[in-house]
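hiii so my PI (J.) wants the whole complex modelled not just the main chain, which honestly fair. so below is everything: two entries, each one labled with what it is. i double checked the lines twice but i was tired so who knows lol
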Amino acid sequence: MEIYLPIAGMSLNIFLVVGIGGLVGFLSGLFGVGGGFLLTPLMMMIGIPPAVAAASDSNQIVAAASSGAFAHWRLGNVDFKMGLIILVGGITGGTIGVQLVYYLRQIGNFEFVMKVVYVLMLGLVGSAMFMESLRTILRSRNPEAIEAVVSSQPKLVQMFAKMPLKMHFHRSGLYTSAIFPFSIGTTVGIMAALLGVGGGFIMVPAMIYIIGMPTIVAIGTDLFQIVITSANVTLQQAFVNKTVDLLLAMLLLIGSTIGAQFGAMAGKRLKGEQIRILLAIIVLAMTVKLFLDLVLPPEHLVSLAPAKGGGH
Amino acid sequence: MKLLAPLFAGMCLVGLFRTDALAFSPEAQEKVITAASKNVIQIGLSYRGDEIHFFGVNPVAGADVITRLTAEKDEVIKLSVKGKVGPFWMTVKQYEVTGAPFVYKIHANKPVKEIISDDLARELELGYPAIKHKIKMHLVRGKAEPGDEDKIFQGLINIKESDNLYNIVEDPARLEIAGGKLFKHYFRFPPKATEGNYQVETFAFKNGELVGYGKDVIRIQKVGLESWLTKTSQESPVFYGIMAVLIAIGAGLGVGMIFRKGGHH
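here's the output for the full assembly
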């Protein structure tokens, strides 16, 4: 059964689109990650124009994150003050990012930059996860080798706590500088626009290890700021690039919400490190594919640039 | 007959103004009567391209027939050319191409070359060489190199052919002429063919000369939700953006309510 996507301007099999949403939702339910970083590249692989893929993915993330944020808000896991500071950064970054997308589309290298950033991000996250889960598996095999995990957390947390603009964050139980949450918000905001990702896979570790927030508050606060950041990116994409395909976003949402439920169920039956090494392999395989796209001679040297140039 | 009046007028005009750029205008030829299986294509939710069948009467028995599908308006296209920068392949220059048809399909009952001379083909804009002659390209970014023109043109043809917007089929089975008199064929409108008016023109040739011409207009339009979403996203982006966000938040909260356990994060 085909469905015509009005903004992407193409018809795709509806089960393929919902299925991709479902697969990513399943993985995100299984691994506890947002999954946006897998969704955009997958959509590009089935032929959706990169800019439409990224913009519609942001729209889908608004929906996916708001259901999670709602649940965490009821459990009291959202540090609104911290979230708001990250948000100011996120909105600044998102706005810059959308303008960057506009410029890159003009000069015809949006896809190139997007893939480079993806390769760097996925490569980094994939190898870090692979190493971490491999270590865990090896450790569980010979218990004698268990070493005390020395965390570098206190040092970094102390360093950021020394910077100016100090504030109290009651929910996180912290007294620290506002500069870091703002700047990481900006970075993730730019990436959200460029890649169509929520950024949870960078934000959550940064909040835990660098800012020093409790894990559950970091996740709740992250989801809260993702809703607002992605909403901002969706709005900006709709205003500036006109590339939000609402139909595509809704199809992905249907798939991802259902998939996430099954993923969460499956997650309870598997061992954590086995799941993580699996995800690491998927991420690394994707990295290799995107990297090859960058360095192998393209099939077609001449390609279409977005038609409406300075369409004012 | 209503049809005959403009026809005669056309013939007279051609007779009077022989210095006109075209030796003769196709409209002045005997009318080729055709019937299309439909004249409007609607893009709905389940649209996946469409096919329109045409039937016609050959004005001169045994004449060869060439049909052409084009969109009413040309488009301005920007083409990016990739080159190697260090180890990476990225866009190194861009050309703006004007005058290229958005859609261009030619069907003929045998190779166009065997039906008419190259000059006539160019004059009537039948075949890729005529397109190449007609389009203009200029460099927007990067450095021009010799051979760019051919490379860009071939690139354009490849892109259009892979989207099934351009093709040339010279096959008596595809454009069938029964008994030299009745012809039938079909044009496939791919999903990439957007809203607008398209024209299907029929040219009949005998001994290398144009002996008949006919034209049908096909309209493609988005309907229902497809039409509304496209129009709103382009014409009221602010409203569309806010709507997209509100729908997403509503859907997310709705889903959150349904799966109350707060299962995934």
